[in-house]
């Protein structure tokens, strides 16, 4: 078996954000302003804000893996373009971007994506190996805290008013924006927990795999392609799914993010589903 050599020279633009990522960030910023001001169809605004925000977080998650891999010894991540935050450079854009976005839209859950490829032959430490896998979920932790910060410090009063037979959004409190931000915080929490599950193929599995014996690592890696299937079975076919959501809402509650506001944000995102 032959291996492609690792470049010792880092491309000059290796750390320059790609136009694709800059475009996603621009959509996120503009749609956030549109959601805040109620410009046009606010449900479409919320959709764009949540989806583009989720895409930004996916790019940052994978960037964290690649960045730590680069500084741990694998210079090839720079040659592959992983340090430019371009989701089109990932090993499988379908699994890394399309599938997680579809699951967010239809299922309202931050599904982990398959991603950048780090050549672990050039990582000379089990601890570094584990930290490379942990870098992604830790990024989601930081993003969850950022999204939840206004709620955590009490800046946001619950912008929902009770009406006969239910509740309505307060038109004077930028309610759609706060609901969308609550949904983004929720997605980051779900992504953190899912990525930390010790399942082959997920970051949690990657964290513990370096500490296994070579024989166990080989067996573990054989099951890695089926990690997503196992994850789906656990979440939607067993009681693990109930425990998962209980944990997620316990964490979001501790962060000051109201469960009703999260549900409103996810419902607004599905602008095609009705009024």
Automatic annotation (TrEMBL):
Compartment(s): Cell membrane
Keywords noted in UniProt: Cell membrane, Hydrolase, Membrane, Metal-binding, Metalloprotease, Protease, Transmembrane, Transmembrane helix, Zinc
One BP annotation, GO: proteolysis
GO MF, one annotated term: peptidase activity
TM segment ranges: 20-39, 46-73, 93-118, 130-153, 177-198, 219-236
Record-stated family: Belongs to the peptidase M50B family.
Protein name from the UniProt record: Site-2 protease family protein
Organism: Paractinoplanes lichenicola
Phylogenetic placement of the source organism: Bacteria, Bacillati, Actinomycetota, Actinomycetes, Micromonosporales
